[in-house]
Amino acid sequence: RKYEENRKFFLCEESIDVMRSFTRNEVYNPKSPVYVDESSLFPDLKTTIDIIHQAGGIAFLAHVFVYSPAIAEELITILDSYDLDGVECFHSQFSKEQSEYLVELCKQRGILMSGGSDFHGLGNRLGVGRGDMHIPESILHQWKDNKRKEA
After folding, report:
1. CB under 8 Å to 83, separation ≥6 — which residues?
2. φ/ψ of residue 73, rounded to 5
3. pLDDT digits (tens, 9 = 90+) for 103-141
4. Dihedral of the CA atoms 25, 23, 4, 33 (nearest 10)?
5. Burial of 61 (0-12, 13-18, 19+ CB in 10 A)
6. In which band, very low, low, confident or very high, does the pLDDT at 83 lie, cut at 50, 70 and 90?
7. Is-contact 86 115, C-beta < 8 A?
8. 110 neighbors 84 (Cβ within 8 angstroms)
9. Rounded Cα distance, 113 and 129, in Å
């Protein structure tokens, strides 16, 4: 708040005081005047998925609703366009309805489900996250077998 004249560059008022908001809403948002395009530093999604598969891993789309609340509209296109093995259905910041939507989508498509507490030390409990998040153990058995089927 030292330089109030910089407020005009922020899309979100919270970004002024909250680093997470600044990063997600300003630095990584192409609509923001302070956006930093780092895409040339990383492989594209197809290449990333191929690398994961070549290494024997399974590729999940994570944090779906964290980065874009409107992603549900784009999610079908993403799943149709890329060889993803699954989607993160359980996350500390997802609502119950968002998780239920993603679980049903994975079941319909026969793809794997994942979940995570997004533990980074503060505010979340390892393996639990915030609130009453519950990740069914049954989804882990699918990972082990690397099978795409209903939980």
Report:
1. 49, 53, 59
2. -65, -35
3. 999 999 999 999 886 665 565 555 555 666 677 888 888
4. -60
5. buried
6. very high
7. no
8. no
9. 17
